[in-house]
Amino acid sequence: MKLDAIIARSRKFVQPYRVTNGKHFSLTRFAPDDIGPFKKHGKDEAAALLDEGVEALSALQELLYASDTWSVLLVFQAMDAAGKDSAIKHVMSGVNPQGCQVFSFKAPSSEELDHDFLWRCAKRLPERGRIGIFNRSYYEELLVVRVHKELLQRQHLPQRLVTEHIWKQRFQDVAGFERHLARSGVLVLKFFLNVSKEEQKKRFLERLDRPEKNWKFSDADLRERARWSSYMKAYQEAISHTAARHAPWFVVPADHKWFTRLIVAAAIIDAMGSLGLAYPTLGRSQTQMLAKAKRDLQNG
């Protein structure tokens, strides 16, 4: 299938999950077990479509790198065991590693805590022509830190700045940061992998039952699970305050990993396909130089 057709199909797939205006956003309207048009044919058809999508992403990445104008930032947020790692692995499997950078943001270091909360992510932004992937991101400030308000104390903020307005201010800061990125030629796409509490339990039990997956489990996972409702409220507010046309959120059903991967790939293909990427056109002198080089090689 031609690239243009895959882009058009991707746009159709991803439309129900895109959030560009948070004014009337409600997380409860998005079902974690939704599999869209694949209720009948399911996994096999989705796998074939994903294979085509991976090839399309490879072609788009080559255009992105050659044009050297735009960069792409993919932000992944989710509850534990939602499948962020596997989604990144499968969707980006055909991408040239030289044109892709992945950063995972865990608990901030002492150096990072001595800077503003955007600093550690800002210095990892992708340069032009490249795709940057944030596995967790500056949104942790609106999620984990909001749920665990005691973490604010570690940030050495002047006490008079830690008011009841701090979360509203941080929503504004993040929205302004993403607006700046968009105006600087960074395509910002944000993914919330929306797993259900029941599916998370199933995946946690699998990690405990399978020795090769034991290392993935931590007792902290259960402590965070106990705060599920607080996290859902935090996600609701973070998405509703930061969704924008220039920095959309995609609330991706995550109870079926094969469907999650398809929608993530479709969102990236659709967005990159809208950039008008093309190989650079050569000027007259460059064309003449290439023609001369070809003659010299043929005669050498």
Name the descriptors:
300 residues; alpha/beta; 6-stranded mixed beta sheet; 6 strands; 48% helix
Question: What features would you describe in this structure?
Answer:
The chain is globular and about 75 Å long. The chain is an alpha/beta fold and 300 residues long. The chain has a six-stranded mixed β-sheet, sandwiched between helices. The protein starts with a helix and ends with a helix. It contains twelve helices and six strands. Helix 1 packs across helix 2 (43-67), helix 1 crosses helix 11 and helix 3 packs across helix 11 (257-273).
Mean pLDDT: 94
Please give the count of helices.
12
Fraction of residues in helices?
A: 40-55%
Report the uncertain regions.
none
Shape: globular
Count all strands and give the number: 6
Strand content: 5-15%
Structural class: alpha/beta
User: What does the main sheet amount to?
Assistant: 6 strands, mixed
First and last CA, distance? 41 Å
Sketch the topology as an H/E string, one letter per element. Answer: HEHEHEHHEHHEHHHEHH
Radius of gyration: 21 Å
Arrangement of strands in the largest sheet:
1-6-5-2-4-3
